[in-house]
Amino acid sequence: MGEQLARILDGEEPLDLGPPPGQAAQSPSDLLLSRVASFLVFGVGPAFAGVEQTLNEAVALARLCCEVGDDAEEAEVCRSVLELLERFEEMGGAATARRGSPTLGVLILALCVASTPRAPLPVLAESHADVSERAV
User: Fold this and answer.
1) Selection from 34, 30, 84 nearest residue 59 by Cα
2) Which of these, 120, 62, 67, lies nearest to 93 by C-alpha position?
3) The pLDDT of residue 119
4) In whole angstroms, what is the distance from residue 9 CA to residue 112 CA?
């Protein structure tokens, strides 16, 4: 801390030295997408061990988080995650998601998309997942 610490200990105001180094390179995190990613992490771990119930719950919660509406800032990323989760289900879902399986690979890709929202999105089939909220 050097001179800055000396200023503070002397009762002076600290110098404004700008943002911490490397801060500009970091992108702000998105709470909603962090939640989606957390639920998918919650499912990927048990999938390696073949625990279907936990995986089904995690995927359902991730889907629910992705219901943001078309006007939401996260809509495009959520649509991509939902399309990947649809593909996951088409490939057999939790019943086939095991270590080394393509099904688990799709789930991990959905996790990567949610975790890196500023990266280019994967090009998927023509299905367009709906991000609107479910009618209750």
Assistant:
1) 84
2) 62
3) 86
4) 45
Positive/negative CA dihedral, 49, 52, 54, 58: positive
Q: Which two tokens stand for residue 116?
A: 């890196």
> d(Cα 109, Cα 105) in Å, to the nearest integer?
6
Task: Break the chain into its structural domains and give their ranges.
Answer: 30-115
State the Cα–Cα distance between residues 91 and 105, nearest whole angstrom.
11
- Cite the DSSP H helix spans in the chain: 3-9, 31-49, 52-65, 75-90, 102-115
Query: Within 10 A of 39 (CB to CB), how many other CB atoms are there?
Result: 22
Angle, helices 75-90 vs 102-115, to 10°: value is: 170
Lowest mean pLDDT among 14-23, 50-59, 91-100: 14-23
Mean pLDDT of the chain: 84
Predicted confidence (pLDDT) per residue in 56-79, tens digit: 899 999 999 999 988 989 999 999
pLDDT digits (tens, 9 = 90+) for 102-114: 999 999 999 999 9
